[in-house]
Amino acid sequence: MRSFERRVFLKSTEWLKKLADAEISMEETGQIDVFGHLQEETITRDHTIQFLKDLRLKFQQAAEEFNQFRKNPRQTVKVYGIANTDADFLLFRNSLKLVIGFSNPGRIACSFHTLSGGVFNPHQKPVAQKKYGIPTPPDKNSQTLGDHLDIELGLFNEAHWTFKGQRVDPVAIVQFYFTEFVKNSAS
């Protein structure tokens, strides 16, 4: 199996590194953590961080393509990592931010913010959900706390991401939020 095929097959080798580190620790200390690999909070935290990293990469690719098509340096979409976080990031253009971040293990929050503090107010109570659970665009988001993506673990601890109980595709997530972001940040 070639290196590229191996990376695609494994998707992430972080779990192999942790497995090797645990074995080295066991040899050095003589202590075995038999159930460490089954801790749900650790599993969901790791999946959440990995999914955030995957989303950021997809948003960066979308931003690069959009900026090339747009050909206007004043209207570019920028993607920034958020300091002191594991994988949170934001998109920025014309005083609008789309913040995507770790809410807690197994939950990712997506929210729109303006530099003036509009669009999003964390102290307001959520309003009734829209029909069919469609995510709310930023101009109608002032009464909500943002959207949340939640994890659903499969039988072998594989991650399935959901929005309001329905499984979602990462590409569709990026397409929806990137489109809403661009349409609402146009000047």
Question: What keyword list fits this structure?
Answer:
7 strands, 187 residues, alpha+beta
Give the topology.
Elements: H1 3-10, H2 14-29, H3 40-70, E1 78-81, E2 89-93, E3 96-104, E4 107-114, E5 147-153, E6 159-163, E7 166-167, H4 170-185
Antiparallel strand pairs: 1-2, 2-3, 3-4, 4-5, 5-6, 6-7
Helix pairs in contact: 3-4
Would you mind describing this structure in some detail?
- With 187 residues, the protein is of the alpha+beta class.
- It has helices at residues 3-10, 14-29, 40-70, 170-185, and strands at residues 78-81, 89-93, 96-104, 107-114, 147-153, 159-163, 166-167.
- The chain has 2 domains: 1-38, no CATH class; 39-185.
- A 7-stranded antiparallel beta sheet has the order 1-2-3-4-5-6-7, with helices on one face.
- It is elongated and about 60 Å long.
- It starts with a helix and ends with a helix.
Q: What string, H for helix and E for strand, traces the elements in order?
A: HHHEEEEEEEH
How much is the average pLDDT? 82
Spatial strand sequence of the major β-sheet: 1-2-3-4-5-6-7
Count of runs of 4 or more consecutive helical residues: 4
**Overall helicity:** 25-40%
Could you tell me the number of beta strands?
A: 7
Rounded to the nearest angstrom, the distance between the terminal CA atoms is 50 Å
| Helix/strand class | alpha+beta
Tell me which oligomeric state these chains represent: single chain
Largest sheet, strands/sense/barrel: 7 strands, antiparallel
Number of domains: 2
Share of residues in strands: 15-25%
Shape: elongated
Low-confidence stretches: 121-128
